[in-house]
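Consortium newsletter contribution from the modelling node. Members have asked for a concrete example of what our holo predictions look like. Here is one, prepared for the flavin-adenine dinucleotide complex that several groups have been discussing at recent meetings.
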Amino acid sequence: MKIRVGVIGGGITGLATAFKLLKKRADRIELSLMEKEREVGLHQSSHNSGVLHAGLAYAPHSAKAQLARSGIRQMIAFCREHDIPHEQCGKLVLATDSQEVEELEKLRTNGLRNGLIGLRILDREEYLEKEPYAGGVKALLVPEEGIVDFKGVCDGLRREIEALGGHVVNGFKFTAVEQRGGEQRLRSSRGEEVVVDYTINCGGLYADRIAHLFGVHPAVRIVPFRGDFYRFKASSDRLVNDLIYPLADPRYPFLGVHLTRLITGEKEAGPNAVLAFSREGYNWWDIHPGELGSALSYKGFRRFVKKHPYMVASELQSTLWKSHFVKRLKPLLPEIEERDLEKSRSGVRAQAMDKKGNLAGDFELMQGEHSTHLINAPSPAATASLAIGDWISDKVLSYLD
Ligand SMILES: Cc1cc2nc3c(=O)[nH]c(=O)nc-3n(C[C@H](O)[C@H](O)[C@H](O)COP(=O)(O)OP(=O)(O)OC[C@H]3O[C@@H](n4cnc5c(N)ncnc54)[C@H](O)[C@@H]3O)c2cc1C
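And here is the predicted structure:
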């Protein structure tokens, strides 16, 4: 008899995990994936920068470094096989003064330790050929990185899951589990029920809450950090060709506002990082009083604000005032002016934070009885999703064996 496995969450990590499970053992697994929205990939997986990260800045041996390495290769192969738009256009990380040049060297060494290939420090004249309007004094070229249509990847994964015999159920908002004998009855807000033997939680912004329902209590809570993007007006999009990043502040898992070309050809600036007033709140007026109250009353969040007042104030200012946002971009693009940009979209990151106000730096999985929970999967989890799928499916299959 087949083992019934349920996956909660039809974002890119849930889809990739379901795909890998079926690819490895379709003979043993009967799979149902439950997604509350009408389509897959409508939250973080399509509200992101659309960048393929190769594992440059992550601590060597961390899950982020290892899974980004394997993930980017698998992602490019998947896109090629399924005709999904992507491009390895390369990225520049800029140093704006001599101190930053030293940091750039360290970043290159870190990237080499993580196995990246083709990393090169470029002089200004060299990188101006690629990005004629870029600021800075030196740049690190990361040729493996690029851009992709992550929503297209989600739709491609869904098709593969269904071709392998899996069921993807949309409009199923998981709200409760009843454990009876070896069985788990997964209930939706509309009273539907899916019965499984094992559950994998890839619930993104709600992964911590879903874990609690299975009796798994993470030491962290998900704090939603919204990131706003601006779009370059057509008259100004010559200012950026591909990807221009600053040196990220190592104290935070966010990469700092950067400049990107989307796979659609549009050029963007962003995202910053401010507390979202609701876990899936894409505008400042999307307020969920319960979720906002829960974030503000969380000891961890209050400690985070106390420890990083400058960062919190600066991120907030860049949401409130376009002039501040543009000021942050000036070191990357000295010619940029407010008139070059118009407000476009936002995304919300599911970032785990502990009670001391520390942001979880690495991907995090937790094990329950007959359940596995992906508790922290922020960037670069979209790039790394197929490798995350291997990580989770191997654990689950060895447990089931
Ligand atoms: C602004 C921003 C920029 C980013 N840039 C990049 C980038 O350039 N490159 C990169 O690799 N990564 C990037 N990331 C990170 C990346 O997008 C995420 O790490 C990744 O999409 C996480 O995927 P996920 O499947 O875990 O979460 P999600 O995509 O959020 O999926 C979770 C799914 O679970 C569903 N769900 C939740 N609760 C329930 C429930 N109760 N019942 C049923 N379904 C439920 C949701 O509807 C959702 O579809 C960025 C993220 C943001 C926000």
